[in-house]
Amino acid sequence: MSTDLKQHLNKNFFEKLTTYQYKIIGLVIIIFGIIFCFNPTILRLKIGIMFILIGGFVFLLLTEKKTNSRITNLQMVLIMSFWIILIFFIGGSISLEMFLLMIFLGITAIRELTNDLITDELKRNLNIILFLFFLILIAIVVKILNVFNI
């Protein structure tokens, strides 16, 4: 390798740890979750959704900006990931819709309880994630209404 290429890689990839490496880690986790969804069973779908959500948190929420907030972005990702894993192990026999609903409620509660402790950028990114969860919630409600022919 030439020295210019090494300097470029060191400057843009290794020194900026969170900008590229966390994004790559998040994408790998998301791809791993998508692979679990290829042969759908309830358990494989739950595992796939769990990996996709955790990868999405890593991809969207981790940044390299240093802030003076009481809870860092990494701590917030760990808290939400722990919640998803906890719901996965506690709710072993629940349906996929209830699994998603419990995750949505938990992340909404985490967002509200940590509102004063996180940065404005993290709040905006969490609002995007909550909006996506809200769209999933609407899809679940529409599915339930179609089952009962309402």
Task: Write a structural description.
This protein has 150 residues and is an all-alpha fold. The chain has one domain. The chain is 77% helix and 0% strand. Helix 3 runs antiparallel to helix 4 and helix 4 packs antiparallel against helix 5.
Topology overview:
Elements (H helix, E strand, L loop, with lengths): L2 H12 L2 H20 L5 H20 L11 H18 L5 H18 L6 H28 L3
Helix pairs in contact: 2-3, 3-4, 4-5, 5-6
User: What is the share of helical residues?
Assistant: over 70%
| Average pLDDT over all residues | 82
| Beta-strand content bin | under 5%
Radius of gyration computed on alpha carbons: 18 Å
Series of secondary-structure elements, N-terminal to C-terminal: HHHHHH
* Tally of contiguous helical segments: 6
Task: Name the features.
150 residues; 77% helix; single chain; mainly alpha
